[in-house]
Write a structure and sequence with these properties.
Blueprint lengths: L1 E11 L3 E4 H7 L4 H8 L3 E4 L6 H16 L8 E5 L10 H8 L6 E5 L5 H14 L5 E9 L9 H4 L4 E12 L8 E9 L7 E3 L11 E3 L1 H23 L8 E4 L4 H11 L10 H4 L6 H11 L8 E8 L3 E8 L1
Parallel strand pairs: 4-5, 4-6, 11-12
Antiparallel strand pairs: 1-7, 2-3, 6-7, 8-13, 9-10, 12-13
Helix pairs in contact: 3-4, 7-8
This protein binds coenzyme A.
Length: about 325
């Protein structure tokens, strides 16, 4: 059977680092509070005029170089973002043009923090259907632009960044020994819209700001994430002991610790970047993947578990043999 095999990763973080100490000069907060409640110590913030597409293009170029794949060979770009450059066209098409690609197709995917897992699942299905051989899967965000910088309950939690993966069709036997995306599971439940949303958009006539009931999101996140991980393990007949690396959406250290404990994964198997990057929404999983691959943790044939949960609510998981 056809499998979608990871050929390379790339990432980009804006130059400017904002520490918790600097945050404390902007809102009534402290380094102690932010570290204790979230594990975040700093975040990267895009420069004035630096757009989501700029971050995405840098991450995409790094991923193509890592994969040793030429831009002309890319059949599909799927870009997860909730902070596109403009209302339209899709920011993925801006990336396509910047890479000099004149064929194939490019589109944005909007599932907020779950966007990258949605995008991997989407690209995998195009590849398995035989319509696409090489897919560039990107998560890129400038959440700093939709934060209410006077709201300490949300402003301290998010950062900007981008990550990308190159997926390519390859042959597999249809077993969990195959390299590639082995399974993916997506969910949404729109009844929870008001727990995490932006109070603006094209149809409302404003850009709006992020609003969140943090405690409610936390409560649902731990349950939904554990359930969707169980789904991935059940679908493949694997257990927590088979997972080499757990690369979760990086929202909050306490959510990641609680999830790892619940599914029985030791802390040393959890890739944790929330401390340095904060929550970069759809960019967080590919950023963490790139870090763990470049520092030598994730190696070929390792079993990697991805998950995410975000506004909607949306949530999902994927198991990938690297
Ligand atoms: N600095 C200092 N104090 C703060 C603060 C900040 N940045 N933000 C909130 N507080 C205060 C609150 O005002 C509250 O004070 P009060 O008791 O006097 O009213 C107190 O801290 C506790 O607030 P609460 O919201 O109950 O804290 P919490 O333990 O739930 O932690 C979050 C808040 C946001 C860190 C936590 O709920 C969380 O991580 N939720 C999930 C968020 C998330 O991951 N979202 C993204 C999903 S994609």
């Amino acid at each position: 059977m056809i499998r979608s095999i990871v050929r390379g990763t790339g990432a980009y973080l804006p130059e400017r680092i904002v520490t918790n100490a600097e945050m404390a000069t902007l809102v009534d907060t402290s380094d102690e509070w932010i570290v204790a409640r979230t594990g975040i110590t700093q975040r990267h913030i895009a420069a004035d005029g630096e757009m989501t597409s700029d971050l995405a293009i840098a991450a995409a170029k790094a991923a193509l170089a890592d994969a040793q794949v030429h831009a002309d060979d890319v059949d599909m770009i799927v870009m997860a973002t909730a902070t596109p450059d403009d209302t339209f066209p899709a920011t993925a098409t801006v990336v396509q043009a910047a890479l000099g690609i004149e064929r194939g197709f490019a589109f944005d995917m909007q599932a907020v923090c779950s966007g990258f897992v949605y995008a991997v699942a989407t690209a995998d299905n195009f590849i398995k259907a035989g319509q696409v051989k090489t897919a560039l899967v990107i998560g890129a965000e400038t959440f700093s632009r939709i934060l209410d910088w006077e709201d300490r309950t949300t402003a301290v939690l998010f950062g900007d960044g981008a990550g990308a993966l190159v997926l390519q069709a390859g042959e597999g036997e249809g077993t969990t020994d195959d390299r590639g995306v082995l399974t993916s599971h997506l969910h949404s439940d729109g009844r929870y819209r008001d727990k995490l949303y932006v109070d603006g958009g094209p149809s409302r006539g404003t850009v709006g700001h992020l609003r969140m009931e943090g405690r409610e999101v936390f409560r649902h996140a731990v349950v939904n994430i554990a359930d969707v991980i169980d789904e991935a393990l059940d679908a493949t007949g694997l257990s927590a002991a088979d997972i080499d690396w757990f690369v979760p959406h990086q929202a909050n250290r306490r959510i990641l610790d609680a999830t790892a404990k619940r599914i029985g994964l030791p802390p040393e198997k959890v890739v944790m970047t929330v401390g340095q990057h904060a929550n970069t929404s759809a960019a967080s999983v590919p950023l963490a993947l790139d870090v763990a691959r470049r520092d030598g943790r994730i190696k070929q044939n390792d079993m990697v578990l991805l998950e995410a949960m975000g506004g909607g609510f949306t949530w999902g998981s994927a198991l990938v043999r690297w």
